[in-house]
Amino acid sequence: MANVTIATTAAEIDRCFPVMHQLRPLLVAEEFAERIAIQQAEGYRLAFLEHEGVVVSVAGFRLQTVLWSGRTLYVDDLVTYAAARSKGFGETMLTWLIEFAREAGCATFSLDSGTHRHQAHAFYFRHGLKITDFHFQLPL
């Protein structure tokens, strides 16, 4: 199994687009690197996992401190390429993220998942994550 890498160059970021696009279909390839760069300036990191030279899993996350739990690693985006699912890549990425959080001194690890992503929820439950909150949104 390959190692997880944090994307730092535009070329690495662009290589992550096809996988991220499966989670975020409204993203446009030509705007992807620029949007990631804006988020990186706000503390976002984009991690990717390669297998045989192809990006198969991607995670966008940030370290932050929140009043209710202290230092946390919050996952904005976590997706494995559809054709590469159930091969351990998602588990490798999730395990890496949790270990990264521990090494960064986080008290919690958290993510939101769309209500329609039932297979992702089953995956999270299998790995010990629990539903602790509801996320509310108001489009503006």
Summarize the structure in words.
The protein is α+β, with helices and mostly antiparallel strands. The protein has one domain: Aminopeptidase (3-Layer(aba) Sandwich). The chain contains 4 helices and 5 strands; from the N terminus they run βααβββαβα. Strands 1-2-3-4-5 form a 5-stranded mixed β-sheet, with helices on both faces. Strand 2 and strand 3 form a beta hairpin. Helix 1 (10-23) packs across helix 2 (29-41). The longest helix has 15 residues, at 89-103. The chain starts with a strand and ends in a 14-residue tail after the last helix. The model has no long low-confidence stretch (mean pLDDT 92).
The gist of it:
Helices cover about 35% and strands about 30% of the residues. It has four helices and five strands. The chain has helices at about 10-25, 30-40, 90-105, 120-125; strands at about 5, 45-50, 55-65, 70-80, 110.
Mean pLDDT over the full residue set:
92
Strand order of the largest sheet: 1-2-3-4-5
> What amount of the residues lies in strands?
25-35%
Helical proportion?
25-40%
Supply the CATH class: Alpha Beta
The CATH superfamily is identified as Gcn5-related N-acetyltransferase (GNAT)
- Poorly predicted runs of 5 or more residues: none
**Between the first and last Cα atoms, what is the distance in angstroms?**
42 Å
